[in-house]
Amino acid sequence: MGERVEIFEVGPRDGLQNEKREIAVAEKVALVDCLSKAGFNRIEVASFVSPKWVPQMAGSADVLAGIKRADGVRYGALTPNMQGYEDALAAKADEIAVFASASEGFSKANINATIEESIDRFVPILEAARHIDLPVRGYVSCVTDCPFDGPTPPEKVAEVADRLFSVGCYEVSLGDTIGQGTPDTIAHMLLAVRERVPTTRLAGHFHDTNGRAIDNIDAALALGVRVFDSAVGGLGGCPYAPGAAGNVATEAVVAHLERLGYQTGLDLAVIEEAAQTARAMRSQ
Ligand code: HMG
Ligand code: MG
Protein backbone atom coordinates (compact mmCIF):
# COMPACT_ATOMS: atom_id res chain seq x y z
CA MET A 1 0.00 0.00 0.00
CA GLY A 2 1.41 3.39 -1.03
CA GLU A 3 2.06 6.24 1.35
CA ARG A 4 -0.87 8.54 2.08
CA VAL A 5 -1.08 12.08 0.70
CA GLU A 6 -4.03 14.26 1.64
CA ILE A 7 -5.68 16.67 -0.74
CA PHE A 8 -7.39 19.66 0.86
CA GLU A 9 -10.07 20.80 -1.57
CA VAL A 10 -10.27 24.59 -1.84
CA GLY A 11 -12.28 24.99 -5.06
CA PRO A 12 -15.53 26.24 -3.53
CA ARG A 13 -13.57 28.99 -1.74
CA ASP A 14 -10.31 29.82 -3.52
CA GLY A 15 -11.85 28.83 -6.83
CA LEU A 16 -15.16 30.60 -6.71
CA GLN A 17 -13.91 33.76 -4.97
CA ASN A 18 -12.31 34.77 -8.23
CA GLU A 19 -15.06 34.07 -10.73
CA LYS A 20 -16.29 37.18 -12.48
CA ARG A 21 -19.96 36.33 -12.66
CA GLU A 22 -22.18 36.10 -9.60
CA ILE A 23 -22.61 32.43 -8.73
CA ALA A 24 -25.86 31.51 -7.01
CA VAL A 25 -25.72 29.83 -3.61
CA ALA A 26 -27.58 26.81 -5.04
CA GLU A 27 -24.80 26.28 -7.61
CA LYS A 28 -22.14 26.46 -4.90
CA VAL A 29 -24.10 24.04 -2.73
CA ALA A 30 -24.41 21.59 -5.64
CA LEU A 31 -20.65 21.70 -6.20
CA VAL A 32 -19.90 21.09 -2.51
CA ASP A 33 -22.47 18.30 -2.29
CA CYS A 34 -20.78 16.55 -5.19
CA LEU A 35 -17.33 17.02 -3.62
CA SER A 36 -18.63 15.63 -0.33
CA LYS A 37 -18.97 12.22 -1.99
CA ALA A 38 -15.36 12.12 -3.19
CA GLY A 39 -13.68 11.11 0.08
CA PHE A 40 -12.07 14.39 1.22
CA ASN A 41 -11.49 14.96 4.94
CA ARG A 42 -11.51 18.73 4.53
CA ILE A 43 -13.21 21.04 2.03
CA GLU A 44 -12.95 24.83 2.20
CA VAL A 45 -16.37 26.15 1.25
CA ALA A 46 -16.76 29.65 2.67
CA SER A 47 -15.05 32.93 3.40
CA PHE A 48 -16.27 35.42 5.97
CA VAL A 49 -14.44 38.43 4.57
CA SER A 50 -15.79 41.86 3.79
CA PRO A 51 -18.31 41.60 0.92
CA LYS A 52 -16.99 44.98 -0.23
CA TRP A 53 -13.63 43.34 -0.79
CA VAL A 54 -14.80 39.98 -2.16
CA PRO A 55 -18.45 40.12 -3.21
CA GLN A 56 -18.26 36.57 -4.61
CA MET A 57 -18.15 35.13 -1.08
CA ALA A 58 -21.13 37.09 0.25
CA GLY A 59 -23.44 34.06 0.47
CA SER A 60 -21.04 31.98 2.59
CA ALA A 61 -23.42 31.49 5.54
CA ASP A 62 -26.14 30.29 3.15
CA VAL A 63 -23.70 27.85 1.55
CA LEU A 64 -22.85 26.34 4.94
CA ALA A 65 -26.55 26.17 5.79
CA GLY A 66 -27.48 24.61 2.44
CA ILE A 67 -24.95 21.81 2.03
CA LYS A 68 -25.57 18.22 3.06
CA ARG A 69 -22.77 17.59 5.52
CA ALA A 70 -21.12 14.22 4.99
CA ASP A 71 -19.79 12.26 7.95
CA GLY A 72 -16.07 12.64 8.42
CA VAL A 73 -15.75 15.82 6.33
CA ARG A 74 -14.74 19.11 7.92
CA TYR A 75 -16.13 22.16 6.10
CA GLY A 76 -13.79 25.14 6.41
CA ALA A 77 -14.05 28.92 6.13
CA LEU A 78 -11.62 31.85 5.93
CA THR A 79 -11.78 34.36 8.77
CA PRO A 80 -9.67 37.54 8.49
CA ASN A 81 -10.81 39.09 11.78
CA MET A 82 -13.10 38.59 14.81
CA GLN A 83 -16.17 39.55 12.81
CA GLY A 84 -15.37 36.79 10.32
CA TYR A 85 -14.72 34.38 13.19
CA GLU A 86 -18.10 35.08 14.78
CA ASP A 87 -19.88 34.72 11.45
CA ALA A 88 -18.07 31.42 10.76
CA LEU A 89 -19.08 30.14 14.18
CA ALA A 90 -22.72 31.15 13.68
CA ALA A 91 -22.69 29.35 10.32
CA LYS A 92 -21.23 26.23 12.00
CA ALA A 93 -17.98 25.99 10.09
CA ASP A 94 -16.07 22.92 11.29
CA GLU A 95 -12.74 24.64 11.00
CA ILE A 96 -11.48 28.07 10.11
CA ALA A 97 -8.40 29.58 8.51
CA VAL A 98 -6.51 32.79 9.09
CA PHE A 99 -4.42 34.10 6.22
CA ALA A 100 -1.21 36.08 6.31
CA SER A 101 1.39 36.99 3.73
CA ALA A 102 5.17 36.65 3.65
CA SER A 103 5.36 39.95 1.74
CA GLU A 104 4.22 43.35 2.95
CA GLY A 105 2.92 44.46 -0.46
CA PHE A 106 0.44 41.61 -0.73
CA SER A 107 -0.53 41.84 2.94
CA LYS A 108 -1.57 45.45 2.45
CA ALA A 109 -3.36 44.78 -0.84
CA ASN A 110 -5.21 41.70 0.40
CA ILE A 111 -6.18 42.52 3.98
CA ASN A 112 -5.22 46.18 4.42
CA ALA A 113 -2.75 45.42 7.20
CA THR A 114 0.96 44.92 7.70
CA ILE A 115 2.10 41.36 8.41
CA GLU A 116 2.54 42.25 12.08
CA GLU A 117 -0.91 43.85 12.32
CA SER A 118 -2.48 40.83 10.67
CA ILE A 119 -0.95 38.42 13.18
CA ASP A 120 -2.09 40.68 16.03
CA ARG A 121 -5.61 40.35 14.60
CA PHE A 122 -5.35 36.57 14.46
CA VAL A 123 -4.28 36.08 18.08
CA PRO A 124 -7.76 36.69 19.59
CA ILE A 125 -9.29 34.44 16.91
CA LEU A 126 -6.92 31.63 17.86
CA GLU A 127 -7.58 32.17 21.56
CA ALA A 128 -11.33 32.05 21.09
CA ALA A 129 -11.09 28.99 18.83
CA ARG A 130 -8.88 27.16 21.33
CA HIS A 131 -11.59 27.49 24.02
CA ILE A 132 -14.06 25.61 21.88
CA ASP A 133 -11.57 23.22 20.22
CA LEU A 134 -12.20 24.65 16.78
CA PRO A 135 -9.27 23.81 14.50
CA VAL A 136 -7.56 26.81 12.88
CA ARG A 137 -5.45 26.50 9.78
CA GLY A 138 -2.98 29.21 8.74
CA TYR A 139 -2.06 30.36 5.26
CA VAL A 140 1.08 32.15 4.21
CA SER A 141 0.77 33.80 0.79
CA CYS A 142 3.49 34.79 -1.67
CA VAL A 143 5.92 32.14 -0.45
CA THR A 144 8.23 32.52 -3.43
CA ASP A 145 7.11 35.67 -5.25
CA CYS A 146 4.88 38.67 -4.62
CA PRO A 147 3.08 40.61 -7.36
CA PHE A 148 4.10 43.86 -5.63
CA ASP A 149 7.43 43.19 -3.89
CA GLY A 150 9.11 40.65 -6.20
CA PRO A 151 10.92 37.55 -4.90
CA THR A 152 10.18 36.63 -1.27
CA PRO A 153 13.13 35.69 0.98
CA PRO A 154 12.68 32.09 2.27
CA GLU A 155 13.59 33.27 5.80
CA LYS A 156 10.61 35.62 5.78
CA VAL A 157 8.28 32.74 4.88
CA ALA A 158 9.81 30.68 7.67
CA GLU A 159 9.30 33.53 10.13
CA VAL A 160 5.61 34.04 9.25
CA ALA A 161 4.91 30.28 9.14
CA ASP A 162 6.55 29.94 12.56
CA ARG A 163 4.43 32.78 13.96
CA LEU A 164 1.22 31.17 12.72
CA PHE A 165 2.23 27.78 14.07
CA SER A 166 3.31 29.28 17.41
CA VAL A 167 0.02 31.09 17.92
CA GLY A 168 -1.86 27.80 17.45
CA CYS A 169 -2.53 27.02 13.79
CA TYR A 170 -2.59 23.23 13.51
CA GLU A 171 -1.25 23.35 9.95
CA VAL A 172 0.38 26.03 7.82
CA SER A 173 -0.43 26.09 4.13
CA LEU A 174 2.27 27.66 1.99
CA GLY A 175 0.79 29.59 -0.93
CA ASP A 176 2.45 30.24 -4.25
CA THR A 177 -0.29 32.78 -4.77
CA ILE A 178 0.69 33.86 -8.28
CA GLY A 179 2.15 30.58 -9.52
CA GLN A 180 5.63 31.96 -10.13
CA GLY A 181 7.42 29.35 -8.01
CA THR A 182 9.76 26.80 -9.55
CA PRO A 183 10.84 23.47 -8.06
CA ASP A 184 14.05 25.25 -7.09
CA THR A 185 12.49 28.25 -5.32
CA ILE A 186 9.87 26.03 -3.67
CA ALA A 187 12.60 23.71 -2.37
CA HIS A 188 14.68 26.63 -1.00
CA MET A 189 11.63 28.06 0.71
CA LEU A 190 10.68 24.67 2.22
CA LEU A 191 14.19 24.01 3.50
CA ALA A 192 13.97 27.30 5.43
CA VAL A 193 10.44 26.67 6.72
CA ARG A 194 11.25 23.11 7.82
CA GLU A 195 13.83 24.56 10.23
CA ARG A 196 10.99 26.23 12.14
CA VAL A 197 7.80 24.21 11.60
CA PRO A 198 7.55 20.39 11.48
CA THR A 199 7.06 19.17 7.92
CA THR A 200 4.06 17.13 9.07
CA ARG A 201 2.32 20.45 9.83
CA LEU A 202 2.90 21.97 6.40
CA ALA A 203 0.78 21.97 3.26
CA GLY A 204 1.56 23.13 -0.28
CA HIS A 205 -0.90 25.51 -1.95
CA PHE A 206 0.26 26.06 -5.50
CA HIS A 207 -1.44 28.10 -8.17
CA ASP A 208 -0.84 26.94 -11.72
CA THR A 209 -0.29 30.24 -13.52
CA ASN A 210 2.84 29.01 -15.27
CA GLY A 211 1.83 25.36 -15.50
CA ARG A 212 4.45 24.40 -12.92
CA ALA A 213 2.27 23.48 -9.96
CA ILE A 214 2.66 19.73 -10.43
CA ASP A 215 6.45 20.06 -10.65
CA ASN A 216 6.31 22.17 -7.50
CA ILE A 217 4.25 19.49 -5.78
CA ASP A 218 6.96 16.97 -6.72
CA ALA A 219 9.60 19.24 -5.19
CA ALA A 220 7.56 19.50 -1.99
CA LEU A 221 6.90 15.74 -1.90
CA ALA A 222 10.65 15.15 -2.11
CA LEU A 223 11.05 17.29 1.00
CA GLY A 224 8.38 15.41 2.93
CA VAL A 225 5.22 17.51 2.47
CA ARG A 226 2.17 15.23 2.42
CA VAL A 227 -0.77 17.67 2.25
CA PHE A 228 -1.65 19.70 -0.85
CA ASP A 229 -4.41 22.18 -1.57
CA SER A 230 -6.09 22.08 -4.95
CA ALA A 231 -9.28 23.20 -6.64
CA VAL A 232 -11.50 20.95 -8.65
CA GLY A 233 -11.58 21.92 -12.33
CA GLY A 234 -8.60 24.23 -11.74
CA LEU A 235 -10.93 26.96 -10.53
CA GLY A 236 -9.55 29.98 -8.89
CA GLY A 237 -7.11 32.74 -8.21
CA CYS A 238 -7.01 35.63 -5.81
CA PRO A 239 -8.82 38.89 -6.53
CA TYR A 240 -6.01 40.89 -4.86
CA ALA A 241 -3.12 39.17 -6.64
CA PRO A 242 -2.86 40.33 -10.24
CA GLY A 243 -1.88 37.36 -12.39
CA ALA A 244 -3.04 34.67 -9.98
CA ALA A 245 -4.60 32.04 -12.22
CA GLY A 246 -6.40 28.96 -11.07
CA ASN A 247 -5.30 26.66 -8.31
CA VAL A 248 -3.79 23.45 -9.51
CA ALA A 249 -6.65 21.15 -10.54
CA THR A 250 -7.60 18.45 -8.02
CA GLU A 251 -8.19 15.85 -10.73
CA ALA A 252 -4.68 16.42 -12.14
CA VAL A 253 -3.06 16.19 -8.68
CA VAL A 254 -4.93 13.02 -7.75
CA ALA A 255 -4.07 11.32 -11.06
CA HIS A 256 -0.44 12.39 -10.70
CA LEU A 257 -0.13 11.18 -7.09
CA GLU A 258 -1.73 7.86 -7.92
CA ARG A 259 0.69 7.39 -10.83
CA LEU A 260 3.51 7.93 -8.34
CA GLY A 261 2.02 5.23 -6.09
CA TYR A 262 0.59 7.46 -3.33
CA GLN A 263 -2.83 6.80 -1.80
CA THR A 264 -5.25 9.72 -1.70
CA GLY A 265 -8.39 7.85 -0.62
CA LEU A 266 -10.30 9.85 -3.24
CA ASP A 267 -12.74 8.65 -5.87
CA LEU A 268 -11.47 10.04 -9.16
CA ALA A 269 -14.79 9.40 -10.94
CA VAL A 270 -16.63 11.64 -8.44
CA ILE A 271 -13.90 14.26 -8.73
CA GLU A 272 -14.23 14.23 -12.53
CA GLU A 273 -17.97 14.80 -12.13
CA ALA A 274 -17.32 17.73 -9.77
CA ALA A 275 -14.68 19.06 -12.18
CA GLN A 276 -17.25 19.09 -14.98
CA THR A 277 -19.64 21.03 -12.75
CA ALA A 278 -16.83 23.44 -11.86
CA ARG A 279 -15.79 23.97 -15.47
CA ALA A 280 -19.42 24.62 -16.46
CA MET A 281 -19.69 27.22 -13.68
CA ARG A 282 -16.57 28.87 -14.99
CA SER A 283 -17.53 29.05 -18.63
CA GLN A 284 -20.97 30.62 -18.24
P1 HMG B 1 -10.77 47.09 5.93
O1 HMG B 1 -11.48 47.91 4.89
O2 HMG B 1 -9.39 47.50 6.32
O3 HMG B 1 -11.57 46.84 7.27
O4 HMG B 1 -10.73 45.59 5.39
P2 HMG B 1 -12.64 47.59 8.07
O5 HMG B 1 -12.58 47.00 9.43
O6 HMG B 1 -12.44 49.08 7.91
O7 HMG B 1 -14.02 47.17 7.40
C1 HMG B 1 -14.47 47.68 6.17
C2 HMG B 1 -15.91 47.23 5.98
O8 HMG B 1 -15.97 45.82 5.89
C3 HMG B 1 -16.81 47.59 7.18
O9 HMG B 1 -18.10 47.79 6.66
C4 HMG B 1 -16.79 46.34 8.00
O10 HMG B 1 -17.93 46.19 8.80
C5 HMG B 1 -16.76 45.28 6.95
P3 HMG B 1 -18.72 49.28 6.55
O11 HMG B 1 -18.65 49.85 7.92
O12 HMG B 1 -17.81 50.00 5.57
O13 HMG B 1 -20.08 49.03 6.01
N1 HMG B 1 -16.11 44.05 7.41
C6 HMG B 1 -16.64 42.83 7.26
N2 HMG B 1 -17.79 42.41 6.71
C7 HMG B 1 -18.03 41.08 6.73
N3 HMG B 1 -17.16 40.17 7.25
C8 HMG B 1 -16.01 40.57 7.81
C9 HMG B 1 -15.71 41.95 7.83
N4 HMG B 1 -14.67 42.65 8.30
C10 HMG B 1 -14.93 43.93 8.05
N5 HMG B 1 -15.17 39.67 8.33
C11 HMG B 1 -10.60 43.23 5.69
C12 HMG B 1 -10.05 44.56 6.11
C13 HMG B 1 -9.66 42.17 6.25
C14 HMG B 1 -11.99 43.05 6.25
C15 HMG B 1 -10.64 43.18 4.13
O14 HMG B 1 -9.38 43.57 3.66
C16 HMG B 1 -10.98 41.83 3.58
O15 HMG B 1 -12.09 41.35 3.77
N6 HMG B 1 -10.02 41.18 2.86
C17 HMG B 1 -10.21 39.84 2.36
C18 HMG B 1 -9.53 39.68 1.03
C19 HMG B 1 -9.71 38.26 0.56
O16 HMG B 1 -10.64 37.58 0.93
N7 HMG B 1 -8.77 37.78 -0.29
C20 HMG B 1 -8.83 36.45 -0.78
C21 HMG B 1 -8.54 35.40 0.23
S1 HMG B 1 -6.80 35.19 0.53
C22 HMG B 1 -6.29 34.13 -0.72
O17 HMG B 1 -7.03 33.84 -1.62
C23 HMG B 1 -4.92 33.53 -0.63
C24 HMG B 1 -4.95 32.04 -0.25
O18 HMG B 1 -5.70 31.29 -1.18
C25 HMG B 1 -3.50 31.49 -0.19
C26 HMG B 1 -2.67 31.83 -1.43
O19 HMG B 1 -3.09 31.50 -2.56
O20 HMG B 1 -1.62 32.45 -1.24
C27 HMG B 1 -5.59 31.83 1.14
MG1 MG C 1 -4.91 30.61 -3.11
TrEMBL record:
PROSITE patterns: PYR_CT. Keywords: Lyase, Metal-binding. Pathway: Metabolic intermediate metabolism; (S)-3-hydroxy-3-methylglutaryl-CoA degradation; acetoacetate from (S)-3-hydroxy-3-methylglutaryl-CoA: step 1/1. It is an enzyme of class 4 (lyase). SUPFAM superfamilies: Aldolase. Its EC number is 4.1.3.4. This is hydroxymethylglutaryl-CoA lyase.
